[in-house]
Amino acid sequence: MPRHARARALCAGVVALASLVLLGPAPPAGADDTRAPARADLSEARAHWIDTTTVVWPVAAGPGAAHRLVHDGAGRIRVGDDGRIAGAADRGLRLSPTRLTDAQRAAHPHLAAHPAFAVHPRDVHRVETALRGQVVAVQEARDGTVTAATGVQLPGVLDDRYAEAATDAELGPVFDRRGRPTLSVWAPTARRVALELGGRTVPMRRDHDSGVWSATGDRSWYGQPYRYRVTVWAPQAGEVVTNRVTDPYATALTTDSERSLVIDLDDPALAPAGWRDLDKPDPVPAARATIQELHVRDFSVADPTARHPGRYLAFTDTASDGMRHLRALADAGTTHVHLLPTFDIATIPERPGDQAAPDCDLASLPADSAAQQECVGRVRGQDAYNWGYDPLHYTVPEGSYATDPEGPARTLEYRRMVRGLNGAGLGVVLDVVYNHTTAAGQHEHAVLDRIVPGYYHRLLDDGSVATSTCCANTAPEHAMMGKLVVDSVVTWATQYKVDGFRFDLMGHHPRQNILDVRAALDALTLREDGVDGRNILLYGEGWDFGEVAGDARFTQATQANMAGTGIATFSDRARDAVRGGGPFDADPRVQGFASGLYTDPNDSPANGTEAEQRRRLLHHQDQIKVGLTGNLADYTFTDSTGRTVRGAEVDYNGAPAGYAERPGDALAYVDAHDNETLFDALTYKLPTGTAPGERARAQVLAQATALFSQGPVLGQAGTDLLRSKSLDRNSYDSGDWYNAIHWDCRAGNGFGRGLPPAWDNEHYWPWAGPALALPGPRVGCAETDAAGAAYRDLLAIRAAEEAFALPTAEAVQRQVAFPLSGPDETPGVIVMTAGDLAVVFNATPGTVRQRAPEFADRDYALHPVQAAGADPTVKAAAFDPADGAFEVPGRTVAVFTRG
To answer: Is 504 a catalytic residue?
Structure first.
């Protein structure tokens, strides 16, 4: 598997729907797998021990069949040559047919249709012994020969037996008031656990109730490297193994995560000046958040004015071009910077000397050459770059971004980064990836699975690990994985004073797990914890796909299910309507509202006939209107056909465009790290002859559809400066050459750095090559500066006007309207009123005049920010009170105020 061949493409709603079609509903009672021929395969785990007294096993029982769970601490169980079970410690736990209760079916809906078995009451006392070794479910004929046998999935029974006590345990390094550390790890199935500390071995004590192993030391342990030595039955290995594993709850690491470190995050030596009473930016309601998504290395690695390129400390370089730009955005209205993953990343060598770099003269190669991506590709497995969606330790900062990856220096520098961004007026949001790990089984990076094999990951019917997220899916529905999520988030919030969390593939989490995170944060106070957790943002990707799709295993944290919680989900509805097409189009030239559909068509047959384009554009405009309301399900308006509809009745690839209950449930965006940058998408979609200045105007217009939506807004850093990745649609491992942001316009915007890497773009090369060779997309300082200044004007308007941050769905219904909607509305133009404002989005190439009788005799004037702003074109926008008409130039968004 590639280092991180992300299925991030799964973030489109259409794919989520497709996955539902492919997966189908849960199998009914009597489905084929329950009638499958019996077999003995101990390499699989098709039986599910869901609680202390109940086993679910889709086995076809013959007449007179007997069932039991056999176990052996040494892992010697097999089916002998005589067809009978051999190697078991004793006769095992007897099973008899039973029925699942309503509560059991609700807790395990994907198992509800399968046969269930009850553990004999006289055998229950042996459950704990059985769990600490190999467990096999066996079906035997009357003569004792095996007719079916399989391994057993244990998460349910482990939760039933240990979770009540274990979820209250403090894991990892914990220090008492005298500075004495206790190290604790949850390993209920382990035969033995010892602590390897600084070259010696320390015994650990097991708590019977929780399954937690602990060892307490003295102050001499401080700063010492350690690992756990865990002896445990490992199903994937098929034997009892002794694993030397770092701490899942580690708070500090040695270089390349080889050892955990006994470090107290409350140590004053790890606190920068002013940390205790850090001056935070004023909190903003979630619905007013305006967020810039940013990768630590992208931010500064190509900035010649940064003193710490590619490092956390680049955010302390106050005089750098990058920090000056962030301060300008903050002054205009940006509230937060969202950092792509900064926890310990599995795939980046942390020592600079171990990091490879392309050995080609990349800048000398032609704009449409394949040589750049080939050169970058040769070292991408050893370079310093990755987006970081491959977690190794969830609660330690990544070492490659620190000046010294050895020891706790990364903690100090991370805190200095937070302080630097807070000082610029920006909150800090962390991108967290608890939905998967880089590896499972006996892989050296499988920290969780080598301690409690088969527990922390979500298993499929045969006992294999689900990988629908790209990698080994975790199972936050299991109590201790859910606890790890909550505990890790709280540590980042209290120890690093961050201001928000963005959950990657949040739909793979139970809704309750995310609500537990929210509750834990809300309980944090300045007095007790040093932070006010109620001000911490939460949002995430609420996509619905994979083995959990359609709430198959639990109620997911998906778009629809998170409505009303105040935890926002990314909305792909308006994004796709504005850009055109979707992330998986065979032809990337499919157009949308901002990219010229119908009003400035390109030559792609994928766009359809003129009539089809017009019809699709008007439907896109309805989707965008719903987006502008904050994707409210119950918002009522007139659609482009003249019908009165609710937001939920506007179609988005078979799903409702409106799914939110209140403003703040949906996060608006048209551009993020996934898929092509907005500039690159427009490069494909706008007609090839579109002039650079017009491309810049189309980009600002597209961003405005998000900025003027109700609820939080996110944009990718550099998009205001027309950032390009040379058409790379998935730059997770494409190195600095494709990803770096160029804050100085004289260095270009990143376009024309060669064909995008073949590993995820080669199918687009027939269009990418000609596009990269064209003069049209080549923007210069004039276009970049103009776009950036116009964007900041729009930011300032959003920040200043309460009409773009209405508190309730009722207020949105009352104050937001689309007065020209209906069968006569102009294709390519949306007119919205919000309180005393009127906003005209003109995506067409030419000037439009939009008239409504109700506007007559009103005293609208161009918003003062735009009237005195940087864009000379918008200053030509005007309102004629006698005719009730707005006149707005092409590819322009104009905001008018009433006197």
So the answer is: yes
